[in-house]
Amino acid sequence: MEFRSILENFSQLQRRKARGASIALGLFVTSLLCVLLLSDLGPLHRYWREVGKPAVLIWLASLVWATCAVGFWWSAWKGKREANHDLRNLLEDRYGE
Asked: What is the reported pTM?
């Protein structure tokens, strides 16, 4: 039963990390859209000096945050997968299934 509780903990961790990664990726895409609208080709280029430069900084920060969040989610997913594999091997060794 200890393995079942470990798997449940990994599942909860994976859900939390997936939610954080979704929020981070949403912010990244939204800030990227803002930067593109404020770029030379965008219709809001006249506001580049006031809004564009801080938007680029927010975009870069969201890029770092999204990269870290996805990395943490991947780590939780990999841990859950390895725990599932270990549990399956343990059950096969114990019960020969």
From this structure: 0.72
